[in-house]
Amino acid sequence: MDNNPVVIADAAGVIRFWSAGAAKAFGHASARAVGQTLDLIVPSEYRQAHWTGFRHAMASGTAAVEGKAVPFPVRRADGETLAARGRLTLLREPGGVVIAAVVVFENSPAIFDEQRP
Fold it and tell me: Does the pTM exceed 0.85?
């Protein structure tokens, strides 16, 4: 899994971890990505839906896609929009409060679909 693209964002949607695999797949160096919001990779046409779902997941502790392999729309640094298949996990404190979201993207030649999600 060392080469898999992995992105961790805190409850405010700020990127706190960006793996070497994410840098390679999405074209942003870790130094550029960490500290930015997820808008860095969420295509503008998907942002409203993304933030609505993200805020709901952080507040409720549930996400319909948690644990499922689903395509996520991703905008690379070069501007290309891709569907990157990944699994969302919500990180919770012992009391159940969600503190972060992790997406581990699949690392195979087929993870990127040139068709829009």
Answer: yes
